[in-house]
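Last lecture ended with a question: if I hand you only a sequence, what can you say about the shape of the protein? Today we answer it with a concrete record. The protein is Precorrin-4/cobalt-precorrin-4 C11-methyltransferase. Below, first the input exactly as provided, then the predicted structure, then a couple of comments.
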Amino acid sequence: MQVVFVGAGPGDPELITVKGQRLLNQADVIIYAGSLVNPKLLQLAKQGASIYNSASMTLEEVVAVMEKAVAAGQKVVRLHTGDPSIYGAIQEQMDLLDKKNISYEVIPGVSSFLAVAAALKQEYTLPEVSQTVIITRLEGRTPVPEKEKLALLASHAATMCIFLSVHMLDSVVEELISGGYTPETPIAVVQKATWPDQKIMRGTLATIAQTVRDAGVDRTAMIVVGNCLNNEYALSRLYAPEFGHMFREAK
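The predicted structure:
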């Protein structure tokens, strides 16, 4: 496979997958997603590899670099932050490669919403609290489908991980409350999860906007909201002695 989309993980360079690291080591051409990718990962490139920052490139320019490299028999890694399948804009790249009959592979990565759970030392799916995780963002310059408006999603009262929206936090809070979360619902904002300068801010829907403003955070942060952030939950049945399953008989 000459073109590989690789998930770089959330920030810590050790969180790239073993396969992703190997392919990065072998690449002749690396196209990375700007400042969102830890520059330490680029140090894994072999000597002589061509490295491009896609932040200043158009879709057509990115694919043109891939096409030229493939024609020359070179291996290409398209390095995306987190997992490429979540807000990675890879579909349009893959579609253009399909039109050009260029084969490719996708290597998953650790998404930032999972890194945030680790930073918070938090399980998203607590028994009798929430068994659903919603991944979304607030509508901005790019619209969202009508049935995916934040207030409608909030009506489920599930655990919600909100990408790309911290700069609109006041609007996020307004939508969440209008959708059914109470002002006392716990919420956390984590900036640059797993990076050395990671920041964690906690509060409620009533307090979080001011807390985040005071911290000067307005980008590269994930919002997590839901009652999973409380300390009250039922114990999992999985390890209960009276709960039998295919690997253990009930006692």
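Comments.
1. The chain has two domains: 3-107, 112-229.
2. Strands lie at 3-7, 29-32, 50-53, 76-80, 104-107, 133-137, 159-163, 186-191, 199-204, 221-225.
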